[in-house]
Each structure stands twice: as structure tokens, then as C-alpha cells.
Amino acid sequence: MAREILKTHDLIFASREKILASKALYDGADIIFAPYGSYWRELRKICVIELLSAKRVKSFSTVRQEEMSNLVGYISTMNNSPVNLSEMFLLISNTTTSRVVFGTKCKHGPRFISAMKKLVEFLSGFSVADLFPSLSFVDTLNLRLKKCHREMDEILGEIIKEHEEKRETMNSSNEERQQGEDLVDVLLELKENGGLEFPLTITSIKAVIMDMFGGGTETSSTTLDWTMAELMRHPEIMEKVQAEVREALKGKAKIKEEDTNEFHYMKLVIKESLRLHPPVPLFLPRVCRETCQMDGFKIPAGSRILINAWAMATDPRYWRTRRALGLRDSMAARWTTKVATMSTCLWCRQEDVPGDDLWHGSGGDGPGQPTLLF
Ligand code: HEM
Questions:
Q1: Which of 54, 108, 114, 287 has the largest count of CB atoms under 10 Å?
Q2: Is 102 within a domain?
Q3: Which atom of ligand 1 is nearest to the CA of 309?
Q4: Residue 306 in contact with ligand 1 by CB distance below 6 A
Q5: What is the CATH number of the domain that holds 124?
Q6: How does pLDDT run across 51-103, given as a tens digit for each residue?
């Protein structure tokens, strides 16, 4: 059924429904909650080509390296005292995103992060108004959300104003501009000189920034949380990961991003942890745009669609340990290329889902048996 929705009839289900959370994200002016159409397509293109392109991501590697060494340095000073890694992971994820989006010198970053934390707390879980729209008057979440949103809007306004002022005083030569460019600079440049079909407004810039934080920070830190928890539950796998890291970093005083290319086993462990504990277990609600028939059911236009990613990723019909490989660590052995395909699909809200069948790859060793990565 999920395959029918995400692949066969993707276009019919490619839009989002307005839920309470979308109000905090400028009423669908962002990418995550924008209804399907040319505005969403353009924002998504900006995201793929400008904000998250390989070149741009690479340009921020110093920021990631610095934050990572701060974390490692901090942990090493703790000797044998307990460290709250969950807090550390959220901190590193927030600080890195803030430096990439707002720039290293932005003084408003910490204020924004603390408002964002409040917002995420409000938005985790179901809201009465979303489940029973007629009872929305009893849901106080709406008011709390509005207050929080006002605060974030104000902070974002100040950040954007400062960036605009900086642009005015800067030499107009492209080279000087590109040095030390953060994502707000990129968005402002696109707003002024991007030649876009839909001119970017300050509201859409604010909404995209909210997406970067809302979509990228908690998800990443939750993934690390679960990975550490699984490693603690599987000491033999922890040992293998440690051995791999020590081997790859042998004799190096500083960790560089390229060094992580050698962390093959660790990457598998992280992917497996993503499968077992997807940070967004229920995909964001989609809406059916036209009445259609599926699996003998009639799905009326306007129906809300929730897809249970966790159930798909843990269904024993598709996820079996491959003993043939002789790998004792079942946790990593269950990881398959098909999950890689699935992660790619997280980005696809249109018909561009990779052509291969998500769950029944032809390269497997029997019906329903997916191809193994290693
Ligand atoms: C472990 C990390 C992440 C996980 C598990 C994750 C998960 C998801 C999921 C489940 C969706 C919804 C897919 C759908 O309904 O079709 C989504 C969409 C999205 N995510 Fe992520 N995400 C992660 C990291 C990030 C990062 C780092 C960013 C940005 C810097 C980001 C930005 C977005 C955006 C903009 C969308 C909306 C795409 C659209 O609707 O077209 N995510 N993500």
C-alpha cells in the first residue's frame, strides 16, 4: 500500500495537509509543508542546487570539523565522569546548523536555538486540533505555538536585517561576497539576483531557515542517540566500531572529515540504527488530491495519509538476518541497499522515486529478499 502511495500514485499523494505544525512554519511557505505545485518545486530546487549541493556542503566542512573537535575535546576532559551524550548531540547539531545557516559571528544563534527547542517540544506528539478539528477550540497548543512563532519570527527578522546591512557595506565583487557566505547570504542573493519563477520573499526565506533547523537538527541528534544506545546494548559491535575508528585515526592528532570515509562499518551501524529507530517514524501527513481506488478501497479526495516508516523498516517479512554471510553481528547484517534507496526517497515527494522496487529488489536471493550492501 505504501509503495502504491509513494511510487505508483505519488502525484496524487504529493501534497501536504495543513496541520498545526505548518502554522509555525509560515503557513506552508516552507518546503516541508508547501502544497504540491510550482512554488514547492522551486523551493526544493533551491534546496538541492544551492543550499545542500555537494559543493556547498563541502564548503562548511571546517565548521563541522571544529564542532566535532570541540565535542571530542570536551568528552576527553571528563575523564571517567558521566557525560550526557543526548545533550551533547543536540548541542552539536544545533550549533553546527546555526553556524552554517546564520554564520559563525551571528550573536542571535543561541536565542534562536532555545526558541526552536521550545517549538519542537510543542510539536512532538499529536495535537487535539489535528485529530479532531471541531475540538480545536479546546486545544491551547495553538496559542502557545503562536507565541513561540512570534518570538522566532522576531529573531529571524533581526538576523536577516543584519545580513542585509552587511551586504550593503560589502564590496560588490563576487569573490569577496562568497568568502564566509552562510545560507542566509545565499538566500538573500537569490532573492535579489536569482531570476526565479517565484521571487523569494523574506517570509519564504524565514520559512526555509525554519525547515533547515526543524528538519535537520533533532533528526540528526536522535539518530546519534539511538546509535549509541544500540552500541551499548551490543558491546561486541561497539568493540568493532572502536577498533575501526582507532585504526583509521592511528597517529592523527586531529580528526578530518575525510577520515570518516574509512568508517565503513560505523556507517552500516548508523544506517541500521536509522532503520530500527527512524527519527520520523510516521512520515509527515500527505493529502489525497483526487479520489482514487487502491487495493480495493476508494480513497476520497482530501483524505489524510499517514505512512508508518517504522513498520515498513522493521517488517519481519522483508528484514531477515543473512546468516550465509557468516556475520555474527546481525545488527549490521540486516542492513541492505534497499534502505539506502528508502533514505533517498525521503527527499522525494514526487514521481522521482528511484526506479527499483523498494522492497523486492531483483538482486536479492529470493522473493522479498533484498540485496545486501556488503
Ligand atoms: C537523520 C536525518 C534525517 C531524517 C531521518 C529525515 C527525515 C525526513 C522525513 C521522514 C521527511 C518526510 C518525507 C516525506 O514525507 O515524504 C523529511 C523531509 C524533509 N527533510 Fe529531512 N530528515 C533528516 C535530515 C534532514 C536535514 C539535515 C535537512 C536539512 C538540512 C532536512 C530537511 C528536510 C526537508 C526540507 C524536507 C521536506 C522535503 C519535501 O517535502 O519535499 N532533513 N525528512
A1: 287
A2: yes
A3: 10
A4: no
A5: 1.10.630.10
A6: 999 999 999 999 999 999 999 999 999 988 999 999 999 999 999 999 999 99
Interval between CA 363 and ligand 1 midpoint (Å): 28
- Answer yes or no: is the C-beta of 349 below 6 A from any ligand 1 atom: yes
**In a domain? residue 182:** yes
Whether the per-residue pLDDT at 140 is higher than 60: the answer is: yes
pLDDT at 204 over 60: yes
pTM: 0.82
Give domain status of residue 152, yes or no. Answer: yes
Domain encompassing residue 84: 22-225
Residue 111 has pLDDT above 60, yes or no: yes
**Cell representation of residue 56:** 556547498
Question: What average pLDDT does range 327-348 have in this prediction?
Answer: 43
> Whose CA is closest to 34, among 230, 156, 211?
211
> If you take atom 28 of ligand 1, which residue's CA is the nearest one?
216
Find, among 144, 67, 151, 68, the residue nearest to 114 by Cα. 151
In a domain, 313, yes or no: no
Which atom of ligand 1 is closest in space to residue 284's alpha carbon?
15
